[in-house]
Amino acid sequence: MDALLTSLGFLNVPLFTLGEKSITLTSLLIFVLSLVVLIWFAGAIQRWLSHRLLARTHLDLSTRETVGTLIRYAVLVFGFMVVMQTIGINLTSLSVIAGAIGVGVGFGLQNIFSNFISGLIVMFERPVKIGDRIEVGGFEGDVVSIQARTTTLRTNRGATVIVPNQKFITEFVRNWDVGLHGGSTTSITLPVKVAHDADPAAVEKLILDIAAAEPGILQSPPPAVFLLSADASGYAFELQVWLRGDPVERAKLLSTLLAAIHQQLGAREIKAA
Q1: Are 176 and 134 in contact (CB under 8 A)?
Q2: Residue 9 and residue 167: Cα distance in Å, rounded?
Q3: What is the pLDDT of residue 108?
Q4: In the chain, N or C terminus with fewer CB closer than 10 Å?
Q5: Is 65 exposed, middle or buried (0-12, 13-18, 19+ CB in 10 A)?
Q6: The CATH number of 124-175 is which of 3.30.450.40, 3.40.30.10, 2.30.30.60, 3.40.50.300?
C-alpha cells in the first residue's frame, strides 16, 4: 500500500501557481472532469427545458429555444465559478487573465464577440424565428436553429448554411414568413416570361388556373399574378403563392408547378421568352 501511495505521489506535485493556489495534476484533472460534467449538465438542462417542460406551455419553438439557451449559459457561468472555488482558486486572482481576454476581444476575438452579442439581440428581439423563410447574405432558406453565434438555414436543395448572427444586425434581411391559420406559412414567387405576341390577360388567367389546381398550394391567401414588365423582349410575370412544408418539399412543389405552367403554355402555342 505504501508503495502504491508513493507511486501516486506525482499527482500532488505542484505544476504551477495561480494566485496563491498551487495547481497539481490532481486538481487539474478534477477541474477538467468538472468542466466536462458541467457542459453535459448545462446541455441536458437546455434540452429538458426546450423539449419537455416548456413544450407543455403555449410558447412557440423559437421562444422555447431562446429560454433554454439563456438558461444554459447561466448554468455554465454559475457552474464555472463553483468549480473554480471548489478547487481552491480565488476568482480575483484571474483578473490578469480577464484583462488579457479583454485585449483579445478588442483585437482577434472582436468578430466572435460581435456575433455573440448579435445572437443575444436576435434571441430577445426575434426579428427571425425558427421555421421562418428568410433571405440574408445572398442565401435563402428556412431557419432551423438559432445559436449564440450563428443561425442555421436549410435551403431548397437540402443544404445547410451557417450564417453569422452579425449579419442580422448589419445587413438587410427579407422574411417571407407570416403566421396564418395558427401556423407558419411561406410566400414564394415564381418568374414566368412569355413572348410579346402573347395575350397578357390569357397568360395571367392560365397561370392562376394552374396554381389553383395544385393541391399543395394554399388558396387562402389566394395565388396572385403580377405583370412586372412589358417590352420588346416579351411580358414578365411573377406568380406569388403561399404554402407550408419543409424547404425540400416546397422546392419539389414549385418545380412541379413551374413545369406545369410551361407545359400548358406550350400546349396553347404561347412562346416563352
Answers
A1: yes
A2: 54
A3: 57
A4: N
A5: buried
A6: 2.30.30.60
